[in-house]
């Protein structure tokens, strides 16, 4: 077997976070498609009960079941799973203790509610445990998934979500839950995992990204890429657009040169310029992080399947789908 | 554009004159905090003694309102022509205060030290919503202000804020809690005799999964909190009642995007079901072309004409950007119009997209003026 190329990436678990409204679900889906190219199988999961994947792929709500939602070049496939902490707990009981029936009973008693809501560390251990199971799952000695992509909780909560050992550590210092948390942590801290942060070039999302990177680093969690989503193409506008030029241009184009139209267009130009300046500042702030940055173009209209494939190509070009 | 339903304008100033409590709701990332702060500032400068409870303000906005200290009590905002107090919610501290107020010092100490309490008070999904309600109740009860404006936690669903107290109640009423309390009440091993085999299966199972120590911690936690449960539920119920009382106004914040409008729609329906008063919808970040007289198609055609003649490339680019903006504005208008048709009785205000975030009082004043129309 030939040695893998020097640039090969060992990452098999991609965790996609970002501030609400920056499009992290879209980026997670596009990344899954990019990773599936070349006949690979990729699991795309969500954990927040939002059914964001079903909406994005325009399918009926996803059950707690792995379902194919997209194909990629060379017979690759993307399988989606909407994870649910309750189901994950029942799964876990079944898998490790052969206790499905007792699990149902715990559920009737409200114990599942307790485990999944009151002790948030437990909830996160169940969800990340399910992720780890998917990463490691083998059938006939072969890995079932070449990669797993998670549409993760938002930046403000991501470190806590991933840092399950310390969360659970305050609740359970020894015992089976602690053991499970530690084994999940080993995968998440390893070079097999990368946490990507999605942002747009606006003040708050960038600030949250900067804070998020610092928190992940402080918790010793592996930072992957920063993905700048919905980036506008550079404008071909000069810094100053004289009124006379606009008047002459409109005249040549056969349009009215009435004052309100010219004023309106000039004020739009001025606004675009100040937006551009802001984006430039925010972009420099991200560059200062020392994290590779991938950019995705702003697509016209809502993102549809075609748009997802287009974004997948951009992510591949940015080196995020290397393996 | 002519086929669009005209807006029923949201009379924000009328609300600011009469409301006692204003609750700002909406899904994450639509500008709830800024809107809440702008409403509060405007009310204060119109002569009402106002306090605003914010949850998670952006750093620079927080600084400009003097919210850098985590005091968990309101402090006066400087530079306001009127009385405006502001505070940032400290979830854990609010919870700790409830514990301290409702149990004797020895028991309070036990509760505060319990690992499950620490986990519950700092990260229970719903604790933040519940504590926001709790704090709102406290501020209203203090009778110091004419108007209390509250921002709600940044959740995926605006409904979480309304559901949190019930969720907590459901947990407190749950059978599990009673089961966990059984050994503490019966004292030591005695409970093993009284519980049915079914229940002992459960405790055995739980011991196996979470370990005996954890189970003991949980039991202690539940037992020590038990005396406070009644109080918790009463307070949550009382705050919930207050939300449907006269003088309360809900403002739903959205953005001209399908997900945010869908969320606003759910929320409006829910308020109607609960007979809670929805004052109006604020649609933030609306793109409005400055030269609406030139349509997207004509603008693009003109840009192409210039390209062909090879003249004024910068004007061709300006026309293309204008077409893009008009197209975006039309898409947003269609989405908002769909919402308007489904909820014709709701008044609505569109706020233009600002290039930069708001980070000072003047910025908030400008937003306030836009809100008032």
Record keyword descriptors for this entry.
heterodimer, A: 323 residues, alpha/beta, 13 helices, 10 strands, 50% helix, disordered N terminus, B: 373 residues, 8-stranded mixed sheet, 8 strands, 59% helix, elongated
Q: Any overview of this molecule?
A:
The complex is a heterodimer of chains A (323) and B (373). In chain A, the strands form 2 sheets. Chain A has an 8-stranded mixed sheet, with helices on both faces. A two-stranded antiparallel sheet of chain A has the order 5-6. Chain A has helices spanning 24-36, 52-57, 85-97, 100-109, 111-118, 120-136, 155-162, 164-169, 176-189, 203-218, 243-252, 259-287, 305-317, and strands spanning 13-18, 41-46, 67-72, 76-82, 138-139, 142-143, 147-151, 193-199, 223-231, 293-297. Chain A is elongated, with a radius of gyration of 23 Å. Helices cover 50% and strands 17% of the residues of chain A. Chain A has 323 residues and is of the alpha/beta class. The longest helix of chain B is centred in the middle third of the chain and has 32 residues, at 212-243. Chain B is elongated. An 8-stranded mixed sheet of chain B has the order 3-4-2-5-1-6-7-8, with helices on both faces. Chain B is 59% helix and 12% strand. Chain B has helices at residues 12-18, 32-45, 59-64, 91-102, 105-113, 115-123, 127-141, 159-173, 175-186, 191-194, 197-210, 212-243, 258-273, 296-309, 313-342, 361-372; strands at residues 21-25, 50-54, 75-76, 84-88, 147-151, 248-254, 278-286, 348-352. Chain B is an alpha/beta fold. In chain B, strand 3 (75-76) and strand 4 (84-88) form a beta hairpin. In chain B, helix 1 crosses helix 2, helix 7 packs across helix 8 and helix 9 packs across helix 12 (212-243). At the A-B interface, helix 4, helix 5, helix 6, helix 9 and helix 10 of A face helix 6, helix 8, helix 9, helix 11 and helix 12 of B.
